[in-house]
Design goal:
The protein is mainly alpha-helical. It folds into two domains: about 180 residues, Serine Threonine Protein Phosphatase 5, Tetratricopeptide repeat (Alpha Horseshoe), CATH 1.25.40; about 180 residues, Serine Threonine Protein Phosphatase 5, Tetratricopeptide repeat, CATH 1.25.40. Helices cover about 45% and strands about 5% of the residues. The chain has 16 helices and six strands. The strands form three sheets. A two-stranded antiparallel ribbon has the order 1-2. It has a two-stranded antiparallel sheet with strand order 3-4. A two-stranded antiparallel sheet has the order 5-6. The longest helix has 25 residues. This is RagB/SusD family nutrient uptake outer membrane protein.
């Protein structure tokens, strides 16, 4: 393939969604030093730190958009101040084509480094190369999660694979299995570079956290367990006031938070403030609030809601170890390791609930649904154990960008809300976002997702 030898060192601007993989050339010499290559990464890293709109970790407005259309909220009862909130995911689907473009822009920048960094010997060079592999792996994982059907097997449709630049090539969709292989290779390579400098954010534990997320999404249960156990061991849970401070912190990476946005006080801008305000105009759903069965004994209850079902939790993009306790519980349950699943479920609950009473199989709640979720990742009716785990996940990760993907992962339930005499229905196909129309039109053989054919 013919590689492009000239590129702009700064972030490159694009005029349409079909050229986001190209490298515009304006007479700029290709970077030569690790510092010059690092500048490509730092644009992305600074965007995350400052809470800007970035596809690798959500800022507050992106979280409000994706959380507000789930069954954790009651869109029908939205107050006038929430008029900017979409009623359902269908109102956001056009914007998801921009997300597709931006994820491939991350891949493009990572490819520039992976293909051109001349030496990987010094600590700085290893940091740069390891971060590039990490970002590419996460971007491809998010492309699978957002633009492909929930994982069933390796033969289903994946996304186009781009590992270098050929302006004349327009790749079609690879198999899911081929994309998985690339992601796993990239994560393994990223770990091999032993990123040591916190300024690059994607240190060993952060890489393993995203790797565990990926394994969990692709139902590689034992691998998800192994990595999650490492993360939880190194970042144990906290409780009480320490937990509340960690969750509600605007700018500090406290306790067991591994990665977060808005790291600087100046980054909590009008976007951040307005997002926290607008979500208060859409009440939490009665079903969600009633999931807090221990109410005042559960530290998450007052953090989440008040007596009027108004959200109280700060919407801040973050990765923290509680998610991996939940992975340990659910992955073990799917493998039939019931005692181990109960152990991890109880570990989470004992760190959130005072006067805690551990669950046993005999004392588990009898519910077999979690909000709109009625079946598990394999399409089977929920058991009381899986229901309890999903309900804890729903409470624990509320406002952190998780619930929509839980709905997608577990059956893609269809549900509707009403507003101004209209009925807005989240259809099953809408959980998988459309590929950009222009790409489909210009790329022979590129298959659009079901429901978006034109």
């Amino acid at each position: 393939m013919r590689k492009i030898c000239m590129l702009a060192l700064a972030v490159l601007l694009f005029s349409s969604c079909d050229n986001y993989l190209e490298v515009k050339t304006y007479g700029k010499a290709i970077p030569k030093s690790s510092e010059e290559f690092a500048s490509i990464l730092h644009k992305h890293l600074n965007s995350i730190d400052n809470g800007e709109d970035h596809v690798l970790i959500e800022n507050a407005s992106a979280l409000v958009a994706i959380e507000s259309i789930t069954d954790n909220f009651n869109a029908t009862l939205t107050q006038p101040g929430g008029s900017t909130l979409q009623m359902y995911i269908g109102g956001q689907l056009s914007n998801k084509q921009t997300r597709y473009q931006k994820l491939y822009e991350v891949i493009r920048d990572a490819n520039i480094i992976i293909n051109n960094l001349p030496s990987v010997q010094s600590a700085e060079e290893k940091n740069v190369m390891g971060t590039a592999y990490t970002m590419r792996a996460i971007a491809y994982f998010f492309l699978l999660r957002d633009f492909c059907e929930p994982f069933a097997d390796d033969t289903q449709l994946g996304v186009p694979i781009v590992v270098d630049f050929d302006m004349e090539e327009r790749p079609i969709r690879a198999s899911y299995g081929a994309v998985k292989s690339l992601i796993e290779s990239d994560f393994d390579k990223a770990l091999s570079y032993d990123i040591s400098d916190e300024i690059y954010r994607y240190t060993e534990d952060v890489i393993k956290a995203y790797y565990a997320k990926y394994y969990f999404w692709t139902k590689q249960w034992q691998k998800a367990i192994d990595l999650s156990a490492e993360i939880v061991d190194r970042h144990p849970l906290v409780k009480g006031l320490e937990y509340a401070s960690m969750i509600q912190s605007q700018n500090n990476k406290e306790a067991n938070v591994l990665l977060r946005s808005y790291l600087f006080s100046f980054s909590t801008s009008a976007e951040f403030i307005n997002s926290q305000a607008v979500i208060k105009n859409r009440p939490l759903s009665k079903d969600f609030v009633e999931a807090f069965t221990e109410k005042g004994n559960d530290v998450r209850y007052a953090i989440t809601t008040n007596s009027k079902r108004v959200n109280q939790k700060l919407f801040v993009g973050k990765v923290r170890s509680a998610e991996f306790v939940l992975v340990l519980a659910e992955a073990n349950a799917h493998l039939g390791n019931t005692d181990e699943a109960l152990k991890w479920l109880n570990i989470l609950r004992q760190n959130r609930i005072t006067n805690f009473q551990p669950y046993t199989l005999a004392t588990l709640p009898t519910e077999t649904s979690s909000g709109n979720i009625k079946v598990d990742v394999n399409g089977k009716p929920l058991t009381p154990l899986i229901t309890a785990i999903l309900n804890e996940r729903r409470k624990e990760l509320h406002g952190e960008g998780d619930r929509f993907y839980e709905l997608k992962r577990n059956g893609r339930p269809e549900f509707w809300v009403a507003n101004n005499g209209l009925k807005y229905t989240t259809k099953k196909y809408m959980y998988t976002f459309p590929l950009p129309r222009r790409d489909v039109e210009l790329t022979p053989g590129l298959i659009q997702n079901e429901g978006y054919e034109f």
